[in-house]
Amino acid sequence: MTTDREVDVSDKTQPTDETKSKGFQQDGKGDKAIPENRKDEKDERLDEALEETFPSSDPVSVKITK
Q1: Basic and acidic residues: which segments have biased composition (predicted)?
Q2: Which pairs with CB-CB distance under 8 Å and at least 24 residues apart come from 58-64?
Q3: Which of 15, 37, 51, 66 has the highest CB neighbour count under 10 A?
Q4: pLDDT in tens, the chain (66 residues)
């Protein structure tokens, strides 16, 4: 039995069907499977972007979105 201040979270920490739905990828290769997402490719694109925008007051975003 729990009081008003105590919360039983044991059932909330278990995986649910919601997290196993097709909207959530489980055990996939993810971004690592895409050649353009390799670290050396990202570093090269970041270096090029820095060269193209230097000197500028706005820094280049490190996060690369598609």
Answers
A1: 1-21, 28-48
A2: none
A3: 37
A4: 555 565 555 555 555 655 555 666 666 676 667 777 788 888 898 888 888 877 766 666 777 676
